[in-house]
Amino acid sequence: MNELSEQIFRCLNDNCEKISLYSEAISHLKECDMLMKPCTEGCGLGLLGKDMEYHIKRQCKNLKETCPYCEEDFFPRQITEPHDCVKLLKANLKEARNKIKELEKNQQSVSMARV
Fold this sequence. Notes:
By secondary structure, the protein is an alpha+beta fold. It has helices at about 1-5, 20-30, 50-60, 85-115, and strands at about 10, 20, 35-40, 45-50, 65, 75. The N and C termini lie far apart (about 75 Å).
């Protein structure tokens, strides 16, 4: 084991020039920037680790942002029109009102069944 820990290894990933001792080489293989990884935002694209940050900030369709005004999340690369706080909040309010009505109906049905 001592001999192994003193051996020098080159990274197995193409285009990576990292050379390190055994223990460092093992951890480097998991984190190597030249390793293909799936997009961390879940868009399905596979890319080199070194390109992940650029992809997420500039290209990924699943990039989620939070509006500083209405505090709602939106996906700027998936919408065809600019984010509209009022329109979004009205839609959320309508959806919430519909859910409340549905819950009230269910509660009335349960109350009637008990009688």
